[in-house]
């Protein structure tokens, strides 16, 4: 593990670990173990550009931070380094303040998050399952006759967006363009900003249409909610929900399919069949959780955390994956012990955790995606050795760049 030099204009603690650069995504568990052995539960780190922050990788310490929104609030405008941040800083889209539920605090956050929760609670999970199965079948139909596919590019990556588009009541003819723009907006390339602008414009048009002609959908419920949200608030919060639903759920699907295709515990056997999809989904949240790390919290005043002095305005990065594997709370934990244990930090914790019932809805989507794929293609196998699968070079998300498989071609379409 390489230690970073002192960065001009950015004083850091001795031994700060760079949380960027090549090689960090291959084996993040090893990286977190090395960090823990050298620094303990709270690690001084450097983000892209040499900006210092604190990386919380202890389960108890992460629980403490996420449970205290007054001491560790969410509004990124508290960060004391803004006068040094360049306009092209790669983490700016994740850290820069936006007037959305993501950065709201106190009563304002409860108002916005409460409206989102109520709108999501109104979704019938049986109907959601039917939507997911219909979308999944259509995607499988597109490649079932070939006998080969990339389950990330052709299946997992597009499924959550298409489901959410239906929940939003988007016109069917606009869904392909919306899906394409959202996928591009979440990527890191030159066209991402333009794609995000197009998504925002599409969402604004959708919300305006729902104001005039409401329906049984999430935007209409938000507009009618007693919280009295403005159209601008509804638009930006719909964008937040859609972004949060897309990449994490897509990677949850992909990581679960990988587990079930590479682990003998999930293979069909003469003595009993494969372990359940539900077991695989839960194990992935512990071992390969899609959202590995999250920026962040910003100390409201000087405090102590994990033996370190945290100063007012310091940035705190949430190490969700590392906390899940904290040996202090999992001394003898194995993958098999994940069955039924949902005390993981995959959806964070506290006031700014993924709002209820979003995790349950995401599980409906992911479970349906995996089950439909395995039902439709029962002999599906990896087309390459497991060791040749490539993870995205990111310390923030845990997902594969591709999941190539082969199977017996079938021309039988899924249910209409």
Q: Describe it for me?
A:
The protein is built from 14 helices and 10 strands. With 416 residues, it is an alpha+beta fold. The protein has a 5-stranded mixed sheet. A 3-stranded antiparallel sheet has the order 4-10-9. The N terminus is likely disordered.
Quick structural gist:
The chain is α+β, with helices and mostly antiparallel strands and 416 residues long. It has helices spanning 28-39, 59-66, 92-95, 106-121, 125-143, 152-156, 159-167, 175-185, 192-212, 218-224, 231-262, 277-287, 320-324, 358-376, and strands at residues 17-18, 42-47, 51-56, 148-150, 294-298, 303-305, 308-310, 315-318, 381-382, 404-406.
- Backbone structural class: alpha+beta
Q: Output the number of helix runs.
A: 14
How much of the sequence is in beta strands?
A: 5-15%
What low-confidence regions span 5 or more consecutive residues with pLDDT below 50?
1-11
Shape: globular
Question: Which characteristics define this entry?
Answer:
43% helix, 14 helices, alpha+beta, five-stranded mixed sheet, three-stranded antiparallel sheet, 416 residues, globular, 10 strands
Topology readout:
Elements: E1 17-18, H1 28-39, E2 42-47, E3 51-56, H2 59-66, H3 92-95, H4 106-121, H5 125-143, E4 148-150, H6 152-156, H7 159-167, H8 175-185, H9 192-212, H10 218-224, H11 231-262, H12 277-287, E5 294-298, E6 303-305, E7 308-310, E8 315-318, H13 320-324, H14 358-376, E9 381-382, E10 404-406
Parallel strand pairs: 1-2, 3-8
Antiparallel strand pairs: 2-3, 4-10, 5-8, 6-7, 9-10
Helix pairs in contact: 4-10, 5-7, 5-14, 7-8, 7-11, 8-9, 9-11, 10-11, 11-12, 11-14
């Amino acid at each position: 593990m390489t230690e970073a030099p002192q960065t001009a204009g950015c004083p850091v603690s001795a031994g700060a670990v760079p949380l960027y650069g090549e090689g960090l995504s291959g084996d993040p568990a090893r990286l977190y173990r090395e960090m823990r052995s050298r620094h303990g539960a709270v690690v001084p780190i450097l983000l892209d550009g040499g900006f210092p922050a604190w990386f919380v990788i202890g389960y108890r310490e992460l629980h403490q931070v996420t449970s205290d929104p007054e001491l560790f609030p969410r509004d990124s405008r508290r960060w004391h380094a803004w006068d040094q941040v360049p306009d092209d800083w790669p983490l700016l889209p994740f850290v820069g303040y936006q007037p959305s539920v993501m950065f709201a605090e106190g009563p304002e956050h409860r108002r916005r998050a409460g409206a989102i929760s109520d709108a999501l609670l109104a979704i019938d999970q049986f109907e959601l399952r039917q939507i997911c199965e219909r979308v999944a079948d259509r995607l499988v139909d597109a490649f079932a006759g070939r006998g080969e596919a990339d389950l990330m590019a052709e299946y997992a990556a597009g499924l959550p967006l298409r489901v959410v588009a239906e929940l939003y009541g988007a016109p069917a003819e606009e869904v392909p363009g919306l899906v394409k723009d959202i996928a591009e907006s979440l990527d890191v390339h030159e066209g991402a900003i333009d794609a995000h602008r197009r998504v925002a414009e599409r969402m604004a048009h959708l919300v305006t249409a729902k104001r005039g002609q409401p329906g049984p959908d999430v935007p209409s419920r938000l507009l009618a909610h007693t919280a009295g949200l403005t159209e601008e608030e509804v638009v930006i919060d719909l964008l937040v929900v859609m972004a949060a639903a897309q990449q994490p759920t897509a990677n949850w699907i992909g990581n679960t399919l990988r587990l079930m295709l590479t682990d003998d515990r999930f293979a069909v056997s003469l003595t009993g069949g494969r372990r359940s999809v539900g077991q695989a989904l839960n194990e992935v949240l512990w071992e390969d959780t899609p959202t590995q790390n999250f920026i962040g919290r910003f100390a409201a005043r000087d405090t102590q955390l994990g033996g370190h002095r945290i100063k007012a305005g310091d940035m705190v990065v949430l190490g969700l994956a590392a906390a899940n594997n904290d040996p202090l709370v999992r001394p003898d934990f194995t993958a098999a012990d994940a069955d039924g244990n949902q005390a993981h930090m995959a959806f964070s914790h506290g006031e700014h955790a993924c709002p209820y019932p979003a995790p349950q809805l995401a599980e409906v989507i992911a479970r349906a995606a995996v089950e439909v794929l395995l039902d439709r293609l029962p002999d599906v196998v990896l087309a390459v050795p497991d060791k040749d699968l490539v993870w995205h070079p990111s310390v923030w998300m845990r997902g594969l760049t591709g999941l190539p498989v082969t199977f017996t071609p079938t021309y039988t379409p899924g249910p209409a």
